[in-house]
Amino acid sequence: MTDDQLELHLPAPPASGDSPLIPARMVNEFVYCPRLAYLMWAQGEWAETGDTAEGHRVHARVDKPNAPLPAPEALESEETPAGDKIVSRSMTLASATLGLVAKLDVAEAEDGLVTPVDYKRGKRPHVAEGAYEPERIQIGLQALLLEEHGYRVEEGAIYYAESRERVRIPLDETLRTAARTAVSELRLTVSQSRIPPPLRDSPKCPRCALVTVCLPDEVRSLSGSSLAPRTIAVPPDEALPLIVQSQRARIGKDGDTMVPMGV
Ligand code: SF4
Asked: Which position among 92, 199, 202, 226 has the lowest Cβ density within 10 Å, counted as fewest Cβ atoms?
């Protein structure tokens, strides 16, 4: 995080039965930008962009659930011969202990080990860790969920659809700690009901799905920033208001057409 974002000095409230489970992909958003996660998770904001539509297209391949993984004991037993690979798609795992839920694009089981595989649009980034931090945290959380359910996990993987490359993400202590810390910080941020400040002059903002809701440069400008707000490309909004003025009027739908149904 940058030093001008929300500073978190308090311990996060523990995960409890009262608090909703946080999706691992929301923790990804939080690490990318705490304000973005807050807008999405606490305020329910969402906007489709070309990037999100492309993400749906990539996930369509793996968004066809098949049988979930066998129980951990079955994977370790002779019922599962060595070398046999079991692939489960779109498996949902939740943990009240971790306060998390995730839908795993793919979980591969082989020789008693399970590897979560997350599908991402775009090309593999050429960074030392193999993937950017938000994506590594997300796959780390999926691995922790698998462990919580009794599976043995040593690493996760991210498959980049555009470059068709698969990157290994070892589940080491550094990733475990970073993943748990990110969940805790998100929970604390939401519990404080205080929206984090926008990023400062970040290249992430112009592409952000919620830039027109967040207004990062404008908010910073009102707080005294000397940077001029960048121009926002407002997406076309194809929705139109429908005004109904008669009391008890009923509106029906005929195909894609709204039709009055009388009063
Ligand atoms: S516009 Fe920038 S600061 Fe605002 S939510 Fe998006 S990435 Fe975060």
From this structure: 226
Residue 168 has pLDDT above 80, yes or no: yes
Q: Taking Cα atoms as reference points, which of 208, 253, 229 lies closest to residue 38?
A: 208
Mean pLDDT along residues 209-220 = 93
- Is residue 137 within 8 A of residue 178, CB to CB? The reply is yes
Q: What is the pLDDT of residue 235?
A: 66
Q: Is 35 in the pocket of ligand 1 (CB under 6 A)?
A: yes
Question: Are 230 and 200 in contact, with CB atoms under 8 Å apart?
Answer: no
**Residue 205 near ligand 1, beta carbon < 6 Å:** yes
| Domain spans, the chain | 22-191, 199-237
| CA-based radius of gyration for the chain | 22
Of 44, 41, 180, which is closest to residue 99 (Cα–Cα)? Answer: 180
Please check whether the domain covering 22-191 is classified as CATH 3.90.320.10. yes
pLDDT at 13 over 70: no
Which pLDDT score is estimated for 137? Answer: 98
